[in-house]
From TrEMBL:
<protein>
    <recommendedName>
        <fullName>Binding protein</fullName>
    </recommendedName>
</protein>
<dbReference type="InterPro" id="IPR011990">
    <property type="entry name" value="TPR-like_helical_dom_sf"/>
</dbReference>
<dbReference type="Pfam" id="PF08238">
    <property type="entry name" value="Sel1"/>
</dbReference>
<dbReference type="InterPro" id="IPR006597">
    <property type="entry name" value="Sel1-like"/>
</dbReference>
């Protein structure tokens, strides 16, 4: 009898321990979910503030060409944008978008309390945190505003980081560097790849540059055609479509992208291509 009672007590204790353990695990899971929910809500609130600040800057950019740079009517919009970006950083200190836009405000806009040193520090922080827009902006500023060799190397480093994330402006700039041979060995194939990827993202300047190179007879690099290849329905073998396409048609497609992006140069090139259809000898002169 005593043995049976002991077994019942042991079983009850084991059940209690199991229940306590399950309750503890459930509590840990609930705590983790609550923490994740809190992080999500915090990030969402920060991004809402970034969007508000960005919208205010868009309104400033819309009218700034028709107003004086120091026009007092712009101050409320600029101050509101700055406050929203600062609040976003207070809520989420890891928000690189807020850092980058706040840095741009210190550099570009006549906002009360603007300081280029603060802007530079914010830009470096955002770039080192991996924001592609900040990396591109910092690379451009290091390249333009400093004449030191070390500064050029740093600029190229940040531009390459932005290119790794396929930032269209950085792709276009790196393409121009490869095309001119500035700081690197001249490489037309690499330049065309950069222009091609930037054009895919709607960069008008890259589309014009890529189309111009095609008109001059530059061959489409294999690294591009390899990803645009298809299979023959009859043989099942891979065939490279772009290699068989007319360079004139490929160039026209690029100028169309530029024109749709609001680039006047793209429209002018489309007009010239219409003239080349009537006078093919002029196109041959360009390709020579």
């Amino acid at each position: 009898m005593f043995a049976a009672s002991a077994r019942r007590v042991a079983a009850a204790a084991a059940a209690a321990n199991s229940s306590s353990s399950s309750s503890g695990r459930a509590s840990q899971i609930a705590s983790a979910l609550n923490h994740q929910r809190w992080i999500h809500d915090r990030n969402k609130k920060a991004m809402e503030l970034v969007v508000k600040g960005w919208s205010a800057l868009q309104e400033v950019d819309r009218v700034i060409d028709f107003a004086d740079r120091n026009d007092k009517r712009l101050i409320p919009l600029l101050r509101g944008a700055k406050e929203n970006f600062e609040l976003a950083l207070e809520i989420d200190n890891m928000n690189t978008h807020a850092r980058c836009w706040l840095a741009k405000m210190h550099f570009k806009y006549h906002v009360p309390g603007a300081c280029k040193a603060v802007g530079a520090a914010l830009l470096v922080e955002a770039a080192n945190m991996g924001d592609p827009e900040a990396q591109y902006e910092l690379g451009c500023r290091l390249r333009i505003e400093n004449d030191h060799v070390q500064s050029d190397q740093q600029a190229f480093h940040y531009i390459e980081k932005a290119v790794d994330q396929l930032h269209p402006g950085a792709l276009y700039l790196l393409g121009a560097v490869y095309l001119t041979g500035d700081c690197v060995k001249r490489d037309i194939a690499s330049a065309m790849w950069c222009f091609h990827r930037a054009s895919e993202k709607g960069h008008a300047g890259a589309a014009v540059a890529y189309g111009s190179l095609l008109l001059k007879g530059a061959e489409v690099p294999e690294v591009i055609t390899r990803f645009n290849s298809g299979k023959s329905p009859s043989t099942g073998k891979v065939r490279k479509k772009d290699m068989q396409q007319d360079p004139l048609k490929l160039a026209k497609d690029q100028f169309q992208i530029a024109a749709e992006g609001g680039c006047d140069l793209g429209l002018r090139w489309l007009k010239r291509l219409e003239d080349y259809d009537k006078h093919p000898e002029e196109l041959k002169q360009i390709q020579q």
